[in-house]
Amino acid sequence: MRGIHNIHRVLLVLLLTASMSVATAQQTVRYDLDVTDTVVNYTGKTRKAIAINGQLPAPTLHFTEGDTAEIHVHNHMHHETSIHWHGILLPNEQDGVPYLTTAPIKGMSTHVYRFPIRQSGTYWYHSHTMLQEQIGLYGAFIIHKRNERPVNEEVMLLSDWSDENPHQIERSLHRATDWYGIRKGAAQSYGEGLMSGHLGTKFVNEWKRMHAMDVSDVYYERFFVNGHAEEQRQHYRKGDKVRVRIINGSSSTYFWLTYSGGPLTVVASDGADVEPVTVDRLIVGVSETYDIEVTIPADGAAYELAATSEDRMGQVSLWLGDGVKQLKQPLGKLDYFEGMKMMNGMMTVGGNMKDMGMNMSLQQMDMNVVMYPEGNSPKTLNYAMLRSPQPTTLPDKPFRTLHFELTGNMNRYVWTLNNRTVSESDKIRIKKGENIRIILTNNSMMRHPMHLHGHFFRVINGQGDHAPLKNVLDIMPMETDTLEFNASEEYGDWFFHCHILYHMMSGMGRIFTYEHSPPNPQIPDPEKGLRKVYADDRRFYLGAEIGIETNASDGDVVLENTRWAWQTDWHLGPNKRRGYEVDTRFGRYLDRNQFLMVFVGGEWRYREGGHADRNWFGQVNTKDDRTAFNIGLQYTLPWFIVADLRVNHKGYVRLQIERDDIPITTRLRLRGLYNSDGEYTVGAKYILTKYLALSSHYDSDMGWGGGLTFTY
Amino acid sequence: MKITLLLSMLLHIGNMAPAQLPNAKTETFRIAGNCGMCKQTIEAAGTRKGESVLSWNADTHFAELTYDSAATTADVVLKRVAYAGYDNEHYLAPAEAYAALKNCCQYERAPQATALTTNNDPARVEHGIPHADHPSPTTGHHSPVDGVLPSYFKLKDALVAGNAKNVSAVAADLSKQLEGLSAPEAKEAATHAAAVAKAKTLEDQRIRFAALSESLYRFTKTNSPSSLVYYQHCPMYNKGKGANWLSNEKAIRNPYYGDQMLTCGNVVETLGGKDAETHSHE
Ligand SMILES: [Cu+2]
Ligand SMILES: [Cu+2]
User: Fold this and answer.
1) Helices B164-179/B144-161 angle, 10° precision
2) Do the Cβ atoms of A278 and B235 come within 8 Å?
3) pLDDT tier at A17 (50, 70, 90 boundaries)?
4) CB–CB of A369 and B259 under 8 A?
5) CATH class entry, domain A1-147
6) Of A280, A358, A373, the CB nearest to B264
7) Nearest CA to B160 among B53, B61, B32, B253?
8) CA angle, corner A235, sides to A233 and A236, nearest 5?
9) Which of A59-63, A96-100, A668-672, B105-109 shows the lowest per-residue confidence on average (mean pLDDT)?
10) What is the pLDDT of residue A36?
């Protein structure tokens, strides 16, 4: 066999010298992917998911550099899908962003992707349609180097799973649910603060209008390596080196990687080789890939390559070797209050992050480290350690510099660049051949894995000409990082976005568009297509909190999107004497932090046998029967006190202050309200489930009562 | 009579306890360990109310495990025991968990586990150092700073670890060594080192350490050390005034904040290194 191979090689060289047109041994590698609806049961509950060729995650696709990939995607579902080839350099119409670059794959239809493979390394593929990635539509995409010597290698495709419907997760995030925090033991209440001596920290945190901080937003029931909680490869023996291709295919989970058999040597990132660098652990951002090498230190044991979710809620393992299992020390629990203390120091009352002149960049100062009580300070990979084996300098062309500030609002779950969503900004025009420099500054409280389609960028990291190539950059709060890439593609629209699924869907991204691109045959009506793309971050989310108590029903329903909000609330007494009140308003958030909303609205109230009162402003007010139109504004003051100032069509003024959801213990919440008509309410609720709480409140009009509160 | 009856009843209940578990299953496993203290830790890790009961015999090193097979598995229980530091038939304890055991409990480990400790310390496997920049001209030439730097690095590490007691002890040694040198920078450094040794709190030690690092930097600069020394800077210390230190490794381990901001800082200057890695330029 080897001899035949060598003859092939000689022939190939001869051919190469003979004619450049046959420079690549053209081989078409075909895969058929059958996409089907499926049900899974990971936790004892049956849930809907999506499978490819009957499996979840999707099968691993193998190619060799120089092949032509021909992938037939058969959509057997009744709803549409799409597949994006993550990190792959390809013609724009093959990129797989539905309505932007590629036709969506409609239900019960087949779509054929065909593109030449002009790179090697570890990549993956996933749906770019709505939230399908969360329920299984992801798989590994491995490209071998030409004439690569076979080595021991494994794929470690990491992912997260929630039993909750991803659309419910998304809606809940937009409602600032604290249910996930409760599930994780990360509610960070005043009571817990008091017990651990951090009461002041919690107070300052809320004073600066920050919600309980966490390293991730969603509670996941399960984490997986290749679809399992753990896997084992028994055939490895002492001294074997194993190359592990790690792919973070999760929707919103970062993973720490550690190995019980010794250090880890990082040899590639996002598919591109780096000079080997040896560390004790590394974090793999959402959608990043790393190739690492580990060694089996002895026979008679299996060594644990562990991937731990950044919030420490779960761990998956790949066991290498045969025998008794050598465990890796688990990562310690997070100390949320220490993290909160640090956040307090970095956040201004005005809602801006300040970096204290630290010039933070490239993951070098892991501010999360304050939350990890680890004594023996392991060596952690950061981007400054990555070095490309080859020079990566760009062609000698003019540079254009773009600044993006990563902005966001945890409270309303709005994530933006320069305070604009994808749909709120124009496409960014680039000229073929020019060099683009992107300077990113993260002014939000979360880390974001920013991904560029169809191009590698160099990360300016102090390695000079050998700056590493990547296509995902994890940027931590307060960091500033610089990326450079050459507009080396021919044409088309290329997405640049945060790869945390729920951040992307809220609009955290931009579209780069090559000037003078030819019409894309897959997008017959580009304007309509773009509207479909924009629709993703323009969606409205419904939420409600409805109390049914013995004295009255207090409730509110809201329908909100990035900027607009329609809010309705009511206080309905049990009879006419106690009275009825309904208030509705439609408003728009104006400032970057979304503390300020202006609104127009109306109110109606009725009560029997009341009497006229004088308000704080000396105006006379009858609560008995009033129908009024209002204009006003709402402003979120420090400590989340919402002030509502309004004037009705008769010139009657009302000022109201209100604070909801004061976390006293993990599950106990207090609220209070007071207004210039002299009305007030105090209430408490004890959270039973995500949707249900026991509650009680006292209202100056309605008196005491108790009952249930439903939260949606 | 009554008492004996009561006692026998109690005993009976005691014996019954494991059997009271539903779907009870009993298995025997070997678990490593030495003494009575081991027994306590092992049994505490293996026993969980309503799920499993584990009893370990310190003489035979065998444990009897009874568990509710609907609620848990032997594998899960043995994993907990290993996390508590004890090797068993299914799992070897993490190196850290074993190291955390009391001396008397540190039983002799399986060779698969000891294979790890003989590995290179990854922190020392530095990558990307421009080693052997200067071709090594001399044989065993040593600079006067070579003798004192190891103690200084020890002191720095003690500050990284935040161990005030160690800091005092090491600083006292360093001060003595520095006093023995003739250079004025060394004398100055000796005074600062003595001040570190006398300082009562970790905070105070760090303030003195900043001054010590300044003098020692000047001393190191004029007397090039034979191994590479990195002069490093933390911009945050002392309310943004910043402070420096010397290190024998390029990776940042910040002595001014320890755990809190371990990797905050950057290399300002690289000093010496004539003899560094003479073996490395083949
Ligand atoms: Cu992707
Ligand atoms: Cu993001």
Assistant:
1) 170
2) no
3) very low
4) yes
5) mainly beta
6) A358
7) B253
8) 90
9) B105-109
10) 96
Interface contact flag, A370 B259, Cβ < 8 Å: yes
Return d(Cα A7, Cα B142) in angstroms, integer.
Answer: 58
Report the residue of B159, B262, B267, B270 to disrupt the A interface, i.e. the one with the largest count of A CBs within 10 Å: B262
Residues in chain B: 282
- In 3D, which of A670, A647, A645, A668 has the Cα closest to residue A659? A670
pTM of the model: 0.80
Asked if the domains A1-147 and A151-533 are classified in one and the same CATH topology, the answer is: yes
Question: Residue ranges of the domains in chain A?
Answer: 1-147, 151-533, 541-711
For the A541-711 domain, the top CATH level (class) is mainly beta
Question: Does this complex have an ipTM over 0.90?
Answer: no
**CA angle at B149 for the pair B147 and B154, rounded to the nearest 5°:** 120
Strand partners, A264: A279
Phi-psi region for residue B219, left (φ > 0), alpha (ψ -120 to 50) or beta? alpha
Q: What residues form DSSP beta bridges with B122?
A: none
B261 touches chain A (CB under 8 A): yes
- Tell me whether strands A653-663 and A469-470 are parallel, antiparallel or unpaired: unpaired
Closest in B112, B262, B266 to A298, CB measured: B112
Residue B275's pLDDT is 44
> Average pLDDT for residues A16-44, to the nearest whole number?
75
Count of beta carbons in the 10 Å neighbourhood of residue A399: 11
Which of A364, A376, A387 minimises the CB distance to B128?
Answer: A387
Q: How would residue B193 be classed by pLDDT, with cut points 50, 70 and 90?
A: very high
Question: Contact B113/A369, CB-based, under 8 Å?
Answer: no
Residue A1: pLDDT band (50, 70, 90) is very low
Q: Tell the CATH superfamily of the A151-533 domain.
A: Cupredoxins -  blue copper proteins (2.60.40.420)
| Cβ burial, residue A605 (10 Å; 0-12/13-18/19+) | buried
Helices (H), A196-292: 199-207
For residue A587, give both structure tokens. Answer: 């408003």
Q: What is the pLDDT of residue B135?
A: 35
State which fold the B12-99 domain adopts. Answer: Alpha-Beta Plaits (3.30.70)
Domain residues of chain B, as ranges? 12-99, 108-133, 145-271
To which residue do tokens 């900004």 refer?
Answer: A425
Q: If you average pLDDT over residues A650-675, what whole number do you get?
A: 92
